Amino acid sequence: MRPLILIFALLHTNAALAQGWGNVAKQQEDKGFSWTDPLWPSFWMAWTPATFALFCGLFGAIAVIGILEGVRYRDGLERKGILGLTTTLGDRLFISLLGTAYIFLAWLGLVGQPLWWPLAIAVAWGIFVFRKV
Amino acid sequence: MRTENQRAWFFVLPVLLLVAFNALVPIITVVNYSVQETFGNNVFFWQGLDWFEQILRSDRFHAALGRQFLFTFLILIIEVPLGIVVALSMPRKGFWVPICLVTMALPMLIPWNVVGSMWNIFTLPNIGLLGYFMNDVLGINYDMTQQPFSAWVTIVVMDVWHWTSLVVLLSYAGLVSIPDAYYQAAKIDGASPWKVFRYIQLPKMKTVLTIAVLLRFMDSFNIYTEPFVLTGGGPGNSTTLLSIDLVKIALGQFDLGPAAAMSLIYFAITLLVSWLFYTLMTKDDAK
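Predict the joint structure of the above. Result:
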């Protein structure tokens, strides 16, 4: 039993193993840009380029919808959709984002990675929400 | 043509800044943590969505989620009708109004950890007043430190004691705003008390009840302090609600990645249920 636990403990540190214990305290070479490396290692929010891009997309979408509602369509294109809800552009963005989160979570829980199929479903869901809801 | 005064935005700016620092920045940090692994010292390793997969498939999470929904369901199904009944039986005018209002407000003034300690001392089987009364006077075998059922009854009763007042006060505010003319008209038509409640009082209380249900849902779904102080999540894991489990993972085991993933799932559930409640309860108004 004990060797098993040890193996599991070692497996758990695969991130450290990937770097290699022999390289501990050695100067790391610059491997070029990676989406998953720390973005600003000395800063405290643990940013990576991938999560940074995610938030740029999220706030970008909110900004675009906000500007559209503030300047172009002052009524937010309000309408009563097929779910019987009265929604504006902002509501539709909220519903599509929340739905997207649940599509990804459901896929992760029921099927697992990779996530290309739920991505397609989420895009379809977003189009459906903006067209019909 | 510009008809609105855009300078009003400057008055909202301080609030926006405050919200940015006490809500937005922490949530963004949690999202960043949820896809990485750390062993401390501000060093992070990319983990992708593994933590989400692990949490979503863990029995421990399912069990805590189930307990959380059961707790919130019990709280809502007891507190909302009870609060309405208490509000209906409170006097509308006269000497007793301020006394009733202050009595109702008292439980809400007590800090949450003090509520937990009070109920802990109150219900301990040997030295607590209630514990002693149940066991030695009534002869009911009651021990919230050993029996899961007793522990559940205790945390539910504690929450009802602490928060029914909120529903009462909000419902009462809705009730006193109904003009006497409505009641007079009902009296002339010979409406029964049930009809008065169903067609006059309930519709008038709807807005405040929406707020009451939403607040009680969010509060009870995110509850931590009171059950933690009272039972510590025990006996065993029987009262380990989601937030208690989350703190165990985050601070007890220092698994920041899985804890971050779990708190995002938790957040998504709270957001969806709150949105559903709000949308369904205000659906008829927006026409």
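The beta strands of chain B are 36-38, 44-46.
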